Amino acid sequence: MSAQKAVKSSHHEAESNMEQDIVRKAWVFKPSGLNFVWGGDSRYWVIPKEDRTPAELKMVSWLEVTGSFDKVEPGKTYRIGFKISFTGDATGWDKAPVFMSAKVGKKGKTIWKRIKSINTNFENLKGGTEQVTIPDETDGRFEIFVSPKEPITQDTKLQFGLYEVWTGKWKSGLLIYDAFVQEVKQRL
Description:
Blueprint (H helix, E strand, L loop, with lengths): L17 E4 L4 E4 L5 E2 L8 E2 L8 E3 L5 E7 L7 E15 L7 E6 L6 E4 L1 H10 L6 E3 L8 E3 L12 E7 L7 E13 L4
């Protein structure tokens, strides 16, 4: 009989930790409900156990924070965003091309949106105590439509993420409070 060691991943895998926020009319994912590449190693990320504490990026060159939501319905549109801030000693964000992505189902078409407000407002956001939502009004909303042609038996899980994987430069000081998925009411 050989003893096998449990292999600890260098990534943080999401627990099913989301709640419905009646005020924001959204489903909210606390940090423990998100996947963080390098989040299993405290040299890179500190993932809190308490819901009211943000995840803190210590330092990475590969930013990848993802989540999934299985309550989407065909024929509806969903808005996706993150609530963030930056520590006073945050670095590497002024020129880093940060993007969000989303797709419905494993075979769905991925849509991308560049989040320019991080680059243009980084100095103002740095060390601020106020949480901001990205994308902000200067970026425009990030929304995805679930085709009404998708049979309910198909994979309709919404997969979304926040990325900066292209520059290879080190980034630090990002605080992630939550991510949200919100149904967009159709205008008549």
